[in-house]
Amino acid sequence: MLSIVQPVALAALVVMMSFTGFMAMDDKVEERE
């Protein structure tokens, strides 16, 4: 069970990191204008 949950949690963490990074990039672009 743990072997199935671990990769899913890792994938979710990567998605959250990329999403927050994308939002930060978008905010920087808005500030630049």
Features:
33 residues, mainly alpha, 1 helix, 0% strand
| Average pLDDT metric | 85
Name the beta content range.
Answer: under 5%
Note poorly predicted spans: none
Please give the domain count. 1
- Give the SSE order as H and E letters: H
Assign the structural class, choosing from mainly alpha, mainly beta, alpha/beta, alpha+beta, or little secondary structure.
Answer: mainly alpha
Report the count of strand segments.
Answer: 0
Helix content: over 70%
**Shape call:** rod-shaped
Number of helices: 1
Distance between the termini: 49 Å
Keywords: Membrane, Transmembrane, Transmembrane helix
Transmembrane segments: 6-25
